[in-house]
Design brief:
This is Monooxygenase 2-like. The chain is 36% helix and 25% strand.
């Protein structure tokens, strides 16, 4: 009998495992891949994410590697006008946005877990529950036929979550936009004057940008209203690069095209941008019988406010805080009572998730339309000039709270290891 099974070893899954470790709960993380995945290359973390990372005890490791961003420039490709956005320190710990390698974040989180906490090549196929001495027990079946029993199951298995499906949440929908992401490495240094700056470029129906991760690596993205010709998951990286340079972004500034030109082809990905309708979360079932979801499994959203990874880290701390409160009452994880803690977690996260999904979608719609003078006025004057800085500050000020005191855990005896 496991205390907690977490499905998925992404940002949400590993962060949740770390949060639970800190409140004295052992978690087994089931990951279907053979190793930690780093799809997406990099991600931006805003102050609300750094508050969560501080609660998890790992923020100092990442801050030592990545410098903060102090401002952003948004250039209109047609008019050449430039909007200036400043990022001032906010929140309880006075944090600023930073971009980090996704794989480094995963490795930093994994290092915090006891040995053998992650079981790779473990794809779940079904979930069911049953009563055992008047307490709910979760039964997870894996693809190889093995069965794992647990007091709690937390689905952190991404956009197409099996756990979310079990809860009855409606599947995510296509936003009508897609994104290309990549990493460029300049062995002798990129030489950009604007390190510590997020550069963005907007055109009718498209938006792109890049930011430096260090003095040699640059993360870049391109978002458009419709999928590029012939693009699909697993598309040839050279075709993706060529399509961006020669068609989608051909009118963009040379500095952006140079970054795309020197991309590490193995890092290039294309993906449709998916999101869950806000009302599905507002009225949907986020928890049932000691089973819940976190991260993209709960609230997939478009990346326009860079809150996907941030909100996943929030989820982890909030869930750990509520489960920790249950343990402090009983001295251990009691299956009957932990369901109430999970219910309180779902209630606390519901409105926050709805707000982020809605704000992200509307932000993307405004920034990528510009099909008329009215829409350009709304985008350039109202949104960029008056609303963007306030909106980013508003969502980034969220404080997920702190975790109870750390409890030491014995090492898990298992065949797999991290």
């Amino acid at each position: 009998m496991e205390e907690v099974v977490i499905v998925g070893a992404g940002v949400a899954g590993l962060a949740t495992a770390v949060a639970l470790k800190k409140v004295g709960v052992r978690a087994l993380v089931l990951e279907k891949s053979k190793e930690l995945r780093s799809t997406g290359t990099a991600l931006g973390l805003y102050p609300n994410a750094w508050v969560a990372l501080d609660a998890l005890g790992v923020s100092y490791k990442l801050k030592a590697l990545y410098a903060p961003f102090e401002r952003g420039y948004i250039t209109d490709v047609k008019t050449k006008s430039i909007q200036d956005v400043r990022y001032v320190p906010i929140g309880r710990i006075g944090a600023q946005p930073r971009a980090v390698h996704r794989k480094v974040l995963l490795e930093v989180l994994a290092e915090e877990l006891p040995p053998n906490s992650i079981r790779f090549s473990s794809k779940i196929t079904s979930i069911k529950t049953q009563e055992d001495r008047h307490s709910p027990i979760c039964i997870v079946t894996l693809e190889d036929g093995s069965i794992i029993k647990s007091k709690v199951v937390i689905g952190c298995d991404g956009v197409h979550s099996i756990v979310a499906h079990w809860l009855g949440l409606c599947p995510p929908v296509y936003s009508g936009r897609s994104a290309v992401r990549g990493l460029t490495v300049f062995p002798n240094g990129h030489g950009y004057d604007r390190s510590g700056v997020i550069e963005q470029f907007v055109n009718v129906g498209t938006r792109a940008g890049f930011l430096t991760l260090n003095d040699k690596e640059v993360y870049w993205f391109f978002m458009g209203k419709s999928p590029p010709r012939g693009m699909e998951k697993g598309a040839d990286p050279q075709m993706i690069q060529r399509e961006v340079m020669e068609n989608l972004a051909k009118d963009f500034p040379p500095v952006y095209l140079d970054v795309v030109k020197h991309s590490d082809l193995s890092s290039l990905t294309w993906a449709p941008l998916m999101f869950r309708y806000p009302w599905d979360i507002l009225f949907g079932n986020l928890a049932q019988s000691n089973i819940t979801v976190a991260g993209d499994a709960m609230h997939p959203m478009t990346p326009d406010l860079a809150q996907g990874g941030c909100s996943a880290l929030e989820d982890a701390v909030v869930l750990g805080r509520h489960i920790g409160g249950s343990i402090s009452k009983h001295g251990e994880l009691v299956a009957r009572d932990v369901g109430f803690a999970i219910g309180r977690y779902a209630k606390e996260r519901r409105l926050r998730a709805v707000t982020l999904i809605t704000a992200s979608y509307l932000s993307g719609w405004v920034q990528q339309d510009a099909s008329s003078r009215l829409m350009r006025f709304i985008r350039d004057v109202l949104f960029y000039g008056l609303l963007l800085a306030r909106l980013v500050s508003s969502v980034a000020q969220y404080d997920c709270g702190k975790l109870p005191n750390v409890s030491s855990l014995p090492s898990r005896e298992s065949e797999s290891s991290i």
